[in-house]
Amino acid sequence: MTTPPSPSPARPVSHADFLRDQLGSQSSNVASYMVGDEQVWLKKAGPRHGMGRYRVLGALAGLTRLDVLRPVPNLGGSEAIATEARRLRDLKARGLRVPTVLAELPGGLLLRHLGRPGEPTPSFDGEMQAAMVRGPAAVLALWMQGLLALDHVHATGTCLSQAFARNLVRCPDGIIGYIDFEDDPAASLPLAHCQARDVLCYVHSTAMYLRESGALESARPLWAAWLEQRGAAMRTVLAASIARMAWLRHLPQSRRLGRDLQRARAAHDLLIPD
User: Fold this and answer.
1) pLDDT by residue (tens digit) across 80-122?
2) Helix or strand or coil: residue 198?
3) What is the side-by-side order of every strand in the sheet holding 108-112?
4) Whose CB has fewer CB within 10 Å in the chain, the N or C terminal residue?
């Protein structure tokens, strides 16, 4: 969430009034505003949609025959808004760093910005890209922070929605926050599968940075040590899922494959070393 805030009406308004008044005039699905001295995000319900928007998860699930990665139903519209509001409130109650729901209508949500007004909250994806110029140690340190951030979520007895690096953000105090909760995997899958799904999504979205920075070899023992400390149920799901990825070793390491397949091959090379 880094878009500069748009001007808001000069008169003081409540969050509920602001959401109601602004919802009809906002053309984009997500926009930022200043309400008094507070930066907020208005997330508008989009049209109901099919599963096409989950291309990455769907493609990865198909390639690896991993049911744990099959996209969770999300038809968009008011249902997605209600799901996100419910999930954000639940995650907040568990002590996790997520945007505060300030107001809710069937057509949209008003959320408090996770950072200071006017300052971005960089995504983990962007941080890892930027760290590559500083060398493998910097990338590896960030990668472990993200893995531990998933631990923090799972320790509260829940899961994320799509735990790609783009949905982990850095707050001004250094704490990692979590965004984008239009679907609820736990409504469709057992918790151990949901948490394994989080881990596989995160690895899929970050392994390329480890490879391209030269940190992949150093990450393997850290991954093994981390995995050893996980609960038996999630380890079992991960072991079965990783075994289904073994055939990915036959994919060439070529940019001509496209970014998604390159990411899948890099994830394989991290999780299943030769």
Assistant:
1) 899 999 999 999 999 999 999 999 999 999 999 999 998 899 9
2) helix
3) 30-35, 38-44, 108-112, 101-105
4) C
Nearest Cα to Cα of residue 41 among 122, 112, 116: 112
Long-range contact pairs involving 168-174 (C-beta distance under 8 Å, separation at least 24): 168/123, 168/124, 169/1, 169/114, 169/121, 169/122, 169/123, 169/124, 170/121, 170/122, 170/123, 170/124, 170/127, 171/97, 171/114, 171/115, 171/121, 172/115, 172/116, 172/119, 172/121
Please state the domain extents for the chain: 124-271
- Tokens describing residue 150: 């998933």
pLDDT at residue 50, as a whole number: 46
- Whether the full predicted model's pTM is greater than 0.90, yes or no, is no
* Cα 4–Cα 9–Cα 11 angle in degrees, nearest 5: 135
